[in-house]
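Mods, move this if it's the wrong board.
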Amino acid sequence: MNYLKSFAAYRFLFVFLLFAISNTNAEEAEILTPSPPTIAASSHILQDYNTGKVLAENNADAKLAPASLTKILTVYVVFKEIKNGHLHLDDKVTISQNAWKTSGSKMFVQVNDQVKVEDLLKGVIIQSGNDASVALAEHVAGNEATFAELMNQHAARLGMVNSHFENSDGLPSDGHYTTARDLGILTTALIKEFPEFYPWFSQKEFTYNKITQQNRNMLLGRDPSVDGVKTGHTEEAGYCLVASALRNGMRLISVVMGTESMNARANENQTLLNYGFRFFESHRLYEGNKAIQETRIWKGETENLPLGLAEDLYVTIPRRRYNDLKATVNVDKQILAPVKIGDKFGAVTVKLKDEVIATKNLVALKAVEKGGILRRLYDSLLMMFKKNDG
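Not the wrong board. Structure tokens:
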């Protein structure tokens, strides 16, 4: 009987130890993040849309021929013109001889055709029409060289520091280049600034003049989470693709340049996207323009000042690490009126364990004017007593 009791006790201890070891291993496995996959391309980058955090990259700052990825900037410039009221979707564009004879992929517009801006944009985005790109460039800027100047000005403003553009369609030209990183910056800006136009990038086909052409982005038919963006190909550039996908509220942007085939560029982008979604997660910790806390404001017409962030604060972290996040709010000690909306009075700092992963300024969410003379005098006395007490 004692033997049986001892055996049972040892058996229980053995099972307990096995459980403890396996549970420890499971916990350790949960926080492991493998290295990014090897991508068969000249250059690539994978980043989170909301935070800009780079999850994978190789040769991302190499200056390469972008082929038709150029057209992402072309339509960005046109979208800007529309947003600024200088252009409208139903404006008619007269097709020039120069636009009509442009080589490469075509929308198949004809000389002297009157084509709506909206149709030309879809011809660029979905059909990758070089003729449509040149037609839009000429309509916006008079000629393509002047339009290229606009492209470069916008690229510089966005922070595309390793890019230079000489045409609107991406046909080979000395001095026409960009990088995977710069294309990630551009794509982020396009999606953020023009959400009303971005759905066109997920459109699988477009018909103009009774000619239907398919979108060359093969991922649109393979992965329902992919909703853009643009393909490109020349002999010099190889097969390129900028892709974006949205899964469970998290958007990733992948850029692959210089692969060997249409299938390869789709596969390599899919590999990057799957890696990012599998091993990382994105969280909105604070909503922009919402009060995080109220603080005392001195010598103002009111005593309380709501502070918050100018825009949403997202973080991108390895999966299952949310509980390791810690946010700290630091507010300036003494705030005096007058205050304007957007004035900075502290910061929110987010750490993952001991690593700072995000810092955003705390800003005033409302304006506070100076108070009357009695209010200012009263607060001056309070501040003096408070200083003496401290």
